[in-house]
Input
Amino acid sequence: DTGVSQNPRHKITKRGQNVTFRCDPISEHNRLYWYRQTLGQGPEFLTYFQNEAQLEKSRLLSDRFSAERPKGSFSTLEIQRTEQGDSAMYLCASSPSPGQGNTEAFFGQGTRLTVV
Amino acid sequence: AQKVTQAQTEISVVEKEDVTLDCVYETRDTTYYLFWYKQPPSGELVFLIRRNSFDEQNEISGRYSWNFQKSTSSFNFTITASQVVDSAVYFCALSEGYMNRDDKIIFGKGTRLHILP
Output
């Protein structure tokens, strides 16, 4: 399977716990995005990487959120001290770099986080 | 700042009817990309089309067609002869990057489409 892979698919955690999600992008894609989607809303941009460099972080990404892409391949998104408001679907997407032609992002199936 | 507005929250049509989903965008850039994605009940976002700002030709792919009009900052999506399998949430999106410029993709809130048998 050469698509974007996200793990776990579902995560239930108690408020105050830390959680970490993983995203494996399409192998030749340099760009990697994280989005959050709540019920009835469109995906909200959180952050994105060009290789290992984090290019931009949304104001939605509070200090409790951190994302890394240490070797320019897979990425992790960690949420510390989870709150009920963090419950959402967390989507990862990857795309080629601008200049490589197509810039559409391909999405993984997401990680659904439920904070109880 | 970039913004995508999908004014239609929810649409219901009877199978075989044509339906148009509206998308209006805002950007300060003269170069940008526009996208449509489909999110079926299974949840995964499926890429449908990408259009760059220099190409205003309408595009048709089977029962799907897209009307890009820079004058009105719109990128509308029409499904002809709708089918029940078209039921999904459809998102319009915008990216201000082009070629080697930095960019991110911003989504509208989506239009939930119900095709009734």
